[in-house]
Amino acid sequence: MPVAIPPLGSYDHVPETKENLDWAELVTVDLSTYNTPNGKQELAKELIKAIREKGFFYVKGFDIPQEKVNRQFALGKQFYELPLEEKAKYTPELEQGKINGYVPAGRRIIDPETGIRDRTESYNIPKFTEDFKHEHHSIIQERLSEIEDFAKSLHSKVLDPLYTLLAIALELPEDHFTKIHSYDIKSEDHFRYMKYSKRPAEENARIKAWSYGHTDLGSFTLLFRQPVAALQIRDPLTDEWKWVKPQDATITVNSCDALSFLTGGYVRSTIHRVTVPPKDQQHVDRLGLLYFSRPHNHVQLKTATESPVLRREGYLQNEFEKSGNPVPTMEEWTFSKQKWQRNRKNDPKNYTATILPGFQEQVYDKELQAVLKTQEALKAQEAAA
């Protein structure tokens, strides 16, 4: 007989930290004014200021009830309570750059000095189109229609308005970005449940971060509010790391690589990391709920030089165009970077690998740079001995 799926129950968020952290000052884009007279024009100004100056911002007024959000958190929590052998049945071919399904913890060394590995699990659910199969554990499979409705509401109520506002800000036709991010065309969008498991105090004291500085490869990433402080952004203007404060009834949004390529670098792909939480939150797990939006797979990531704004400001070429290399499609870029992410080893050269001709990765953390420099010196000494 089939095993009965337990009810989700309620999801209780842990208390916010009481520590006085160096919070980033981020703009809040209120979509409740989107359809008012002059609403789009005013919001477009706010959005472009946010992604030019910080690359991170909050969105509110998107008409998705908190109850539905909490159900998704509860679903993620229930899935991660499964035994590892059950979750592992849904692990894709990670070495080939595939990520839909379960990605187990412990694949990355997060502290090269001590060899401590990550405790990060993720479960990625692709678009609900004929391009993707949906074969999940029963906890997810039996609630798939609810997840589908939730994911599609993020597209229609959050992403479509943001892409429209970005087009207005760049003086492009309003559908310029929505038509290359439409839901029904194949792209590698995915909805994610992500868990950072708590660590012993002695490990947290040794490691520098739970994940080092990086950029996301798509267009926009949506992160629902969860109260464990750990997300930090590197301020583009000062290069200082700032904490991102959880804000009630908001989604935290960051701009990513694909939008930077499509705008010749005018839109920032924001550097961020997940660091060790403050001491009053280190005893709890950190559960995240995210959506990664990406252009259609066939879209070539060339600069939108038809934008009057980009022409006036002189943002007419991205990294591939400047170097004279072929401009990749989104599919080529996605699987090249994902393959690098999944196969990266504890070798300094891998942190600055060429993802595709014309684009070389970087090390964004001074702490990691110091560790890698020490490692290179030790290797040189061993080779000379």
Key phrases:
385 residues, alpha+beta, Jelly Rolls, four-stranded antiparallel beta sheet, 17% strand, globular, Fe2OG dioxygenase domain-containing protein
Helix proportion? 25-40%
Rg, nearest Å: 21 Å
**Could you say what the CATH architecture is?**
Sandwich
| Distance from first to last alpha carbon | 65 Å
What's the average pLDDT? Answer: 93
How many domains in all?
Answer: 1
Element-level helix/strand string: EHEHHEEEEHHEHEEEEEHEEHHHHEEH
Task: Give structural notes.
This protein is an alpha+beta fold and 385 residues long. It has a single domain (28-384), classed as Sandwich (Jelly Rolls), CATH 2.60.120. Helices cover 32% and strands 17% of the residues. The strands form 4 sheets. It has an 8-stranded mixed sheet. A 4-stranded antiparallel sheet has the order 8-13-10-11, with no helix packed on it. The chain has a two-stranded antiparallel sheet with strand order 4-5. β4 and β5 form a beta hairpin. α1 packs across α5.
Topology diagram in text:
Layout: E1 28-30, H1 39-53, E2 56-60, H2 66-80, H3 84-87, E3 101-103, E4 109-111, E5 116-117, E6 120-126, H4 138-141, H5 144-169, E7 190-196, H6 201-206, E8 211-214, E9 220-224, E10 231-234, E11 241-243, E12 251-255, H7 257-262, E13 272-274, E14 286-293, H8 308-313, H9 319-323, H10 330-343, H11 348-351, E15 354-356, E16 359-360, H12 366-384
Parallel strand pairs: 1-2
Antiparallel strand pairs: 2-12, 3-6, 4-5, 6-7, 7-14, 8-13, 9-12, 9-14, 10-11, 10-13, 15-16
